[in-house]
């Protein structure tokens, strides 16, 4: 079962802009953990495994995108897919966190760097 299902992990793209938060990386880790013994792994719940596989295969093949097409590729805020990818990248989120730090916290970090 493992080899016939593993293709989905190989096909799922890895988004390098979302370090530590990427679905493709997460899926690879979970499959590797679940099927540590390769083809010899005994699946305790084959129905649940099949259901999860089918759900991921539908997402990967854009089944729902084609079933329920959107009239435009923008959102209610008017942003495009590319703009959302930029906003949700790990680097941009880190910048937002830095901007939201209070003045006191920034000063503490600055003094800690000078002490070291």
UniProtKB/TrEMBL annotation:
Keyword Mitochondrion included in the entry's annotation: yes
Signal peptide per UniProt: none
Pfam families referenced in this protein's UniProt entry, alphabetically: UQCC2_CBP6 (PF20180)
Keyword set, alphabetical order: Mitochondrion, Mitochondrion nucleoid, Transit peptide
Listed GO CC annotations: mitochondrial nucleoid
One of the GO BP terms on file: mitochondrial respiratory chain complex III assembly
InterPro entries attached to this UniProt entry: UQCC2
UniProt-annotated location(s): Mitochondrion matrix, Mitochondrion nucleoid
Top-level taxon of origin: Eukaryota
Record carries keyword Transit peptide: yes
Protein name per Swiss-Prot or TrEMBL: Mitochondrial nucleoid factor 1
